[in-house]
Specification:
Thioredoxin; 18% strand; 188 residues; 5 helices; alpha+beta; signal
């Protein structure tokens, strides 16, 4: 009987250690929590909105996933344009200013991420900031960029020079406008 109790206690101790280790590892790797990112506040209308530096992780959680995931799944970028755009995406970085409360952001941000994903762009090449309805953030990240509407996607070359912007609405599509910006053929 003593042997069974000792065996049971040993197995229980090993299982709890293994469970704790696995849980900690998964949580850290999965969320990458930074207290300065993915902050939320209530809008004047009582809606939960994102503010300040934001990562893709924020859009995998409710309430933002409610609009992000369906639009992301429905959008299919033009394959021919993506074939030309994908190698060019290696040479650029992005800044995005979005409003989780904004219908234009809710339409185009998932599409933007779909294009980045299909183009195999690492998320480290994107800095994203969520703004309030008055186009401000808690620490003013938007001020140097003259943000007048959201979403605003700014494209930079490898030297950090701004190549162009998609402001509020991509025309005719996000992938086509990105291609034109990077190639320098966008109509002003």
């Amino acid at each position: 009987m003593k042997n069974y109790l000792l065996l049971f206690a040993t197995a229980l101790a090993l299982a709890s250690c293994a469970g704790t280790k696995q849980s900690t590892s998964t949580t850290t790797a999965h969320t990458g929590i930074n207290p300065n990112e993915n902050r939320e506040e209530k809008s004047p209308a009582g809606e939960t909105i994102l503010i300040g530096p934001t990562t893709r992780v924020a859009f995998d959680q409710a309430p933002h996933s409610n609009w992000f995931h369906p639009t992301y799944q429905r959008y299919t970028p033009n394959a021919k344009i993506m074939e030309e755009l994908t190698p060019l995406l290696e040479t650029v970085t992005f800044k995005a200013f979005v409003g989780s409360w904004c219908i234009d952001t809710q339409r185009d941000l998932p599409r933007f991420f779909k294009v980045l994903d299909m183009g195999r762009v690492p998320l480290t090449k994107l800095q994203m900031y969520s703004l309030r309805e008055d186009r401000t953030s808690p620490t003013g990240e938007e001020k140097p960029y003259n943000i007048t509407a959201v979403p605003t996607f700014i494209v930079y070359n490898k030297d950090g020079k701004e190549l162009g912007r998609i402001v509020e609405v991509a025309y005719p599509t996000i992938e086509m406008q990105l291609l034109n910006i990077i190639k320098g053929t966008e109509k002003k």
